[in-house]
Amino acid sequence: MKIKTLLYFAKKYLTAKWSLMSTLSILMISFGVITLIAVLSIMNGFHNTFRTKILETNTYHIIIQPSLSDQFSLTNIKSVLKKNKDIISVIPYFDGEGIIKSRWSTRGIIIKAFPEDVLQQDSGFKNEIKVPKGEFDLSEDDHILLGEELAREMGVFVGDFVSVLTFRGEDISFSQPAFKVFEVVGYFKTGYWEYDKNMAYISINTAYGLFGIEKKDLAIGVKINNISRVDKVVNWMKNNGLDNLYILTWVDMNRVLFEALQNEKVGIGFVVMLIIVSGAFNIIGSLVMTVMEKRKEIGILRALGAIPADITRIFVIDGFYIGILGSATGVFVGFFLTLNIEKIFSIFESIVNGIKNLVYVLYLMPKNASPLPRFEILSDSIYYLEGVPVEIHFWDVFIISILSIFISIIAAYYPAKKASLTKPIDTIRYE
Questions:
Q1: How far is Cα 85 from Cα 409, in angstroms, rounded to an integer?
Q2: Which 3-state string (H, E, C) describes 313-337?
Q3: SS3 annotation, the chain
Q4: N or C, fewer C-beta in 10 Å, the chain?
Q5: Each residue's pLDDT tens digit, 363-404
């Protein structure tokens, strides 16, 4: 039987008597595709925003650790790195620990030392770091910036003074304490709560005296144009005289965290895919009903010479049609919802808060109860987000669509096989 004929009968059987089961099949496939596109796009947005904030504000794409020998000076390393066009910034820095004391609180913190002009040298850091109050000024020896959460916990305002205690020397048993008073010139906000709660920034010149370090004790942070090329850049470094240095990449430093995020995406995607599988069962039911209703027509086709394989193909094509319709509808609606997710969240929050206000006015206010807290899907204070991050990846949408169509075809195989077993003689006898 020619392909045009097969397509004609497949379309005829699917649309001649459009059943509720067919509608449910398409809706389930569509709903699964919509959900997958929305969930994966939001997760992509969260993960990439999270990764960018960590890499740009708190670590680097490549880190060169201090060398135990004096063979490599900071100047020599910089001169080598400048030869690579993929490298966009080279920042010396130092990570130390200390105890900070304000008028109200005392606690341990991580102290990160930068060059005074770090904002000019590192555009990625400048774009991602936020300074809600004060200014990013490390030009003076006694200037310090505190993480916003740390400043709130310490009860410190811009212009206040804090004391910092550190210990000089590698061996704690022989180390000497160093004490310095700093003026808080600003708060910073990285977008990662743990850092904003436990970190402070000072200048490298201040760190020399505070920690008793020298230039050879500084680490070097390197940022490149494309983080996916990090292994190639590291190999280039080793082939250009830096092979004796201890070099780490952003993958090495954050492997467990980013693998966990990727596994989370795969796991949630698998769970949501079960919605599409549920739609596949509706396809089976829909086509089985079609086979039963079209038993007479199938028998006539067999009597006219259609072979069982032709009948199978007709109903597999029906499953293909359902998959195409469901996937196309799901992709269209999924794109629309995903690109407008922030407005949808806002409308949903307004509805929920309206209901809560109504409940408070009607039932709780007469009892002098406290107002109900405002409902927020994504609180700025928790997620550090100015909006809902969304990134739609073409390959995600492509794979979702192909899987949806494939599952639809697989689901159609059983009723298609059942239809192909129809015998003309039985149709004549019973119909």
A1: 50
A2: HHHHHHHHHHHHHHHHHHHHHHHHH
A3: CCHHHHHHHHHHHHHCCCCHHHHHHHHHHHHHHHHHHHHHHHHHHHHHHHHHHHHHHCCCCEEECCCCCCCCCHHHHHHHHCCCCCEEEEEEEEEEEEEEECCCCEEEEEEEEECCCHHHHCHHHHHHCECCCECCCCCCCCEEEEEHHHHHHHCCCCCCEEEEEEEECCCCCCCEEEEEEEEEEEEEECCCHHHHHHEEEEEHHHHHHHHCCCHHHCEEEEEECCHHHHHHHHHHHHCCCCCCCCEEEHHHHHHHHHHHHHHHHHHHHHHHHHHHHHHHHHHHHHHHHHHHHCHHHHHHHHHCCCCHHHHHHHHHHHHHHHHHHHHHHHHHHHHHHHHCHHHHHHHHHHHHHHHHHHHHHHHHHHHCCCCCCCCCCCCHHHHCCCCCCCCCCHHHHHHHHHHHHHHHHHHHHHHHHHHHCCCHHHHHHHC
A4: C
A5: 777 777 777 777 777 665 555 555 677 888 888 889 888 888
Is residue 41 within 8 A of residue 409, CB to CB? The reply is: no
pTM, rounded to two decimals: 0.71
Kindly tell me the burial class for residue 342, based on how many C-beta atoms sit within 10 Å of its own C-beta (0-12, 13-18, 19 or more): middle
Q: What confidence category does residue 214 fall into, taking pLDDT thresholds of 50, 70 and 90? A: confident
Q: Could you report the per-residue pLDDT of 95-149, keeping only the tens digit for each?
A: 888 999 988 888 899 999 999 888 888 888 888 888 888 899 888 888 999 998 8
As a whole number, the mean pLDDT across the chain is: 80
Q: Considering only CA atoms, which of 210, 174, 204, 208 is closest in space to residue 92?
A: 204
Distance (Å) of CA 18 to CA 30, 166, 354 = 17, 77, 41
Query: Domain segments of the chain: what residues?
Result: 3-49+258-430, 66-245
What distances in angstroms separate CA 293 from CA 138, 219, 296, one per listed residue? Answer: 80, 75, 8
CB 393 within 8 A of CB 40: yes
